[in-house]
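Message: I would love a firmer grasp of how sequence relates to backbone shape in proteins. Thank you; the sequence and its tokens follow:
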Amino acid sequence: MEDRDSARAAKHSSSLTEALDVRSVGFTPIKGARHLSQSDADFDERGPVGDRRYCLVDVEKRQVLRTVQNPSLVAVFARLHDDHLETRLPDGRSVSAVPEVSGETLTCDYWGRPVEAELTDGPHDGLLSAWLGKSVRLARVPRGDVVYGDPVSIVATASIRDLGRKVDHPDLLAEAARFRATFLIDTEEPFVEETWAGREVSLGGVRVRIGETIPRCAVMDLDPVTGARGPRLLKSLAAYRGSNANGEPFFGTYAQVVGES
């Protein structure tokens, strides 16, 4: 029996050395802005280049804006074109400019963690302050400083379909950006990705090591285009999935980049 179990484990392990089917790659250059497909993304050991390179700061509170408290931020389109940062609002207003570092650095709070934010000068501040209804500054942050866990996240199609069935939302896969995953991968078995912890897999031209499962917050309840609150996915997920000590249910996995495929 033990030999058969070992053989099955070895077969499962070897299968994971093959390339997984990647449906899409996505991120945003501004923390909390709309999660966009980035088919030409470059990767290094710290994840996708340009991912959450900027954030918005409440200077008076010395706080990085939190998406759950500022859901309209999700509606902001943001994309990098070399050094230029394009931001566009749903009403059509937009700016595209190089965010120039002002020389002022603030130590800001990001969910209880200090972040050194370099404030920038440029037209982005006015546009985004008007949209959010309060004064904010665009800031550059060290890569990874406004990221919860590992630099890469993975969500699987079968897991999304399973959650969609549970909440009677059959089109949930079309709204996969709710989960803001770096990689959306095609799978047939719900939550099989959670069994891969510690293994290395190939995702397109990137090789990653699968990490821990991702504890989720209410951002997944926000429409990925408008930011409007929709189906209570978080509550439904918590009703049938495992959670951490804070009651945050798991969905998807973290990963670390270990090289090229």
The CA atoms of residues 18 and 261 lie 10 Å apart. The radius of gyration is 19 Å.
